Structure formats: structure tokens, C-alpha cells
Amino acid sequence: MRETAGVVSQFEMDKNSVCAELLCNGVFDLGVIEDVLFEEDMEWAKPQYSRKEVNWAGASLLSDVELKEAESDHAIDIVNNFRVAHAFPLNTLQNRLRTQANNIDGNSIVAQRLKRLSSIYAKLDRFPQMELWDMQDIGGCRAVINTLDAIEQLVETFKSSSIRHKLSHEDDYVQQPRDSGYRSRHLIYRYTSDRNEVYNGLRIEIQIRTALQHAWATTVETVDAFTQQALKSSRGEPDWGRFFQLMGTEMAFSEGTPAVVGTSTNRQELRQELRNCASKLQVITSLRGFTTALQVTRRASAKAKDADYFLLSLDNVAERLSVTGYKRRELGQASQAYARKERKIRDKRGKDAVLVSVDSIRNLQRAYPNYFADTVIFVQALQEALQG
Fold first, then answer.
1. Strand blocks (E) in 63-138
2. Which positions ≥6 away from 295 have C-beta within 8 Å?
């Protein structure tokens, strides 16, 4: 759906009457209008299980006790319902984020995704005290924007807007980068609505980052995918982990932000260690090899260019990426296909799938370059550092 900062004429004609009725009745809160538009647009999945049942499902799938097939299937069904129920609040917040990001930077990229089952399991495994109901990033949206100043402007604009959803947590990984080298701004919101109370309390994570920060993060995911590591979770080969720490600080130097803890604050010393590390790992050769090897196929191509959701299926063994497009009204169908794909590839190394949404297929690769093995921006930044 196209977003607007209050200009009703930009919405589809069949929704104008809804907006007009609200405005005539004195409703000027875009949050309310967004809720109604999304509600009218399609049938959204709703949470069907209690907090206790959701937490049981998350814990049981990680348990050492082997479940019967029927119990395992039931647990997966509960997790899938909990996940897809985040689609409605995710769209609402993503809609607001896109409007405000485009007002600040017309070249910004805004995308959203529902968290992969494999990532849900991995996170629960890393944080044994965490319960599934409390996971803050089941639904996540991201804005990639031009500059650090634009990040700050977008964060402040979003936080100060007339939004009824509750900011529950905020992390500034730009000024305090993670030990891995990761940098971004995070805002965690609890969905709150008088009209759609069934979703109240579900949490959505918003990430706001620059193109350099995005290139770093997605290159980590590319290397994870093609080398079967878990660098994103700080569980990978030490040499690769160190390389990304160093590159995190190199990019921080470029943007004038703090260095990653444990790396040199002398740029020449940093670059010398970076050269040694990149040479040892043959980083540039490896990254270019991933891109060259990957074959991209697009299913349902006739409608993919106008799709709202995309199911990305990556098979690193066959070196192939499949892209299937779905209309907004087909979210239920897309979610079912996503669940089937994840069941099929569960515990199979080198295979991955994710259901994402961007405003056009043109921006799909820009938003999710890791699935296309696209590391061009990262490689350019690395080459500049190695030659400096």
C-alpha cells in the first residue's frame, strides 16, 4: 500500500470513502486511519493461543525431550500463528516509518520481515531465560537512510509523532556498537490500539541505519549463509569474527562514530591489521565468488513486479535463490508457503527462507542484498580501506 502523511488522495480509490468518513467525524490521527485501512484491506491473522501456550511451544521445540510427531506439529503451528499474527501491527508501524523516512530522504529503503523459525530457535537457544512471548523482534521493519544526521532526525520524528503505540525500549548501537561491530539504531514498540485490541502488547522492532551500516550487517549474513557460520550471533570462526570487528571500526571512522571495543583507534594500525586479516581469509575473492555462483530464479514473475510480499528461498548447496511474489491479499497464502518451506528445510544446512515485504521488486535486492550475495558496497569500502 502506498503511504501518505495525511493526503487522502494518494490512497486507492476504494479506500477514499473510509478516510473521508473518518475525517468528517473529526478523526485526524493517522494511526487510526492506518488501522482502519489495513483492517479493510484484507483478513489479517489473529493470535489464537495464550501466552502460556506460546511459551510452551517455543520451549518444547528446544527441549532435549523428543516430542511425538503430533506434538511437534502442534508446537510449530502455535509458533507460526504467533509469528504471522505480528503481520498486522508490523504493517501499521512500517507504514508510518516509510512515510517519515521518505519525507526525510527520498532515496531511503524501508522493508519488513517476519522472523525466520530458525532464527527464533537460535535466539531462544542463545538466551535460555527468554520466553517466546517476550521476543521483541518477531516482526521487524528497517529503514536504510542516507546519513547519520538523517538517522537522528528520523528517530526523533518517529518518537515524537502522534503514535499511540508504546516505545518500550531503545538501543543506540551507533554510539555504542556491539562487540561484533554491528551498528544501528533500534526502537522497540508495543502495539496499542482501541480498534484492534487483539494485537495489543505484540512487540515490533524498528531498525534505522545508514547504507554503510546496512552493508556491514548484510555482508555478515551473506558470509554466514555461504560458509555455514553464525557470525551474526557471535558464533563463528574467530578470524572472520575479527575481520568484521575491524571493518566495523573502519566504517565507524568513515562516519565519525565510536570504534568497536577491542580494536585500534589508530586508523593506520587498524588498517594494517585489516589488510592482514582480509588477505588471510581471501575476503574479496570469497565475496565475489558467492555473487558469481548464485543463480536467481523468479517464480510467478508475471505478478512479481507488482507483489507486496516476497518469499526468498536460498539453497547454498545448489547455489540458487528462488523469489516468489505475492499480493497483499495473498498474505495468508504466502504465510502458509513460508511455513511449508521452513518445515521442509528444517535442520538442513545451507538452506534458508524468509518472507519479506518491500515497496517494489526494484528495491528487493537493495533491502535484502544478503539473499542475493550482493556485497558491492561492502567490497568498495573494504578496497578503499586496504588501499589507504
1. 109-114
2. 319, 320, 321
Burial class, 13, CB count within 10 angstroms (exposed 0-12 / middle 13-18 / buried 19+): exposed
CB of 118 closer than 8 Å to CB of 342: yes
Is residue 26 left, alpha or beta, with left meaning phi > 0 and alpha meaning psi from -120 to 50?
left
**Grid coordinates of 237:** 570462526
State residue 7's pLDDT score. 29
Q: Which residues lie closer than 8 Å to 212 by C-beta, 6 or more apart?
A: 251, 254, 255, 377, 381
Cα 96 to Cα 155, 157, 197, 238: the distances in Å are: 12, 11, 19, 40
Average pLDDT, the chain: 84
Q: Could you give the angle at the alpha carbon of 363 between the alpha carbons of 107 and 169, nearest 5°?
A: 70
Distant-in-sequence, close-in-space partners of 192: CB < 8 Å, separation ≥ 6? 164, 165, 166, 200
Write down the pTM of the prediction. 0.83
pLDDT (tens digit, 9 = 90+) per residue, 180-231?
A: 999 999 999 999 998 889 999 999 999 999 999 999 999 999 998 888 888 8
Whether pLDDT at 13 is above 50: no
Cell numbers for 383? 578496497
Strand partners, 297: 322
The C-alpha atoms of residue 39 and residue 108 are separated, in whole angstroms, by 27
- DSSP letter for 259, please: P
DSSP 277-293: HHHHHTHHHHHHHHHHH
Long-range contacts, 339-347 (Cβ 8 Å, 24+):
339/76, 339/80, 341/311, 341/313, 342/116, 342/117, 342/118, 343/76, 345/313, 346/117, 346/118
Question: Which residues 6+ apart lie within 8 Å of 286 measured at CB?
Answer: 223, 226
Q: In the beta sheet, which residues pair with residue 81? A: none
Residue 256: which residues within 8 A CB-CB, separation 6 or more?
148
Phi, psi for residue 111 in degrees, rounded to 5: -145, 165
Within the chain, what is the greatest distance between any pair of CA atoms? 67
Instruction: Describe the strand order of the beta sheet including 139-145 as a list of residue ranges.
Output: 166-172, 185-190, 203-210, 139-145, 109-114, 351-358, 309-315, 320-326, 295-299
Residue 27: per-residue pLDDT: 37
Tell me the pLDDT tens digit for each residue of 331-356: 888 888 998 888 888 777 778 888 88
- Residue of 60 and 268 predicted with greater confidence: 268
How far, in Å, CA of 261 to CA of 271, rounded?
16
